[in-house]
Design brief:
It is built from twelve helices and no strands.
């Protein structure tokens, strides 16, 4: 059986691709954070304490619009709710012989990518393997934020606008491949874009703050998808 040191080293090695991906994405976050009014240390601290891309990006719109703490809390609760479900699942995959405290520590770094690798680990997942991935991935996320925040403080506005396009390119890279294979997902994306546009153009709706928009659209479209096209459970699973 591999020792703790070997497991950490393996986790760090497997976490390098995650760290490189995080470095690119968080660079865009750092730029947008500075544009939203945060200082570089504040942006770095946010990334170090949260480690959640979608939640952090969504929080910037609330912060930039001077939204309330309630809007910020609710938007983060809804957007990051999946991490709770992922942590429940991962807690069953972690080696049952490991002390219970390891589940709390692993939950902090339980991002989508770390969850995927942890779930794919053959047999019970040793917590030290997860810690190794966290040691690679989290510094990558924080370092990218720091570089982006520093760049946002010194680069010309035109360059920052160009770099900001990287965020939208990332979103396209995430949603386009699965949308090509799943027509339901494709229509949900179209509906989301149309609804977001209406909230920005129609006089009664555009008065709603950005944080509340995120909450309403997320809940509304998710509920619509759940009612009209529920995910069918595998009857053979057991």
């Amino acid at each position: 059986m591999a020792g703790r040191g070997d497991l950490v080293k393996k986790g760090m090695k497997d976490g390098i691709p995650i760290a490189l991906g995080y470095l690119a994405v968080s660079f865009s976050f750092g730029i947008l954070a500075v544009k939203a009014g945060l200082t570089a240390p504040q942006a770095v601290l946010m990334s170090a304490l949260n480690v959640t891309s979608a939640g952090q990006f969504a929080s910037l719109s609330v912060i930039a619009a001077s939204g309330s703490y309630l809007e910020l809390i609710l938007s983060q609760l809804i957007i990051n709710l999946r991490y709770s479900l992922m942590s429940f699942s991962l807690s069953q995959k972690i080696d049952q012989k490991a002390p219970f405290v390891h589940r709390f520590i692993a939950a902090f770094g339980n991002t989508d990518e770390i969850f995927a690798l942890s779930s794919a680990y053959p047999g019970p997942t040793p917590p030290w393997y997860i810690y190794g991935m966290m040691l690679s991935a989290i510094p990558g996320w924080v370092a990218g934020t720091a570089l982006g925040a520093l760049a946002g403080s010194v680069l010309p506005l035109r360059v920052l606008s160009a770099l900001g396009v990287a965020l939208y390119a990332m979103f396209c890279a995430i949603i386009v491949p699965p949308a090509r294979e799943n027509r339901t997902l494709l229509w949900l994306i179209v509906i989301s874009m149309a609804a977001s546009l209406l909230f920005s153009l129609l006089p009664p709706l555009r008065e709603i703050s950005s944080g509340t928009r995120v909450i309403l659209l997320t809940l509304g479209i998710s509920a619509l998808a759940a009612v009209l096209r529920p995910v069918k459970e595998d009857e053979d699973a057991g």
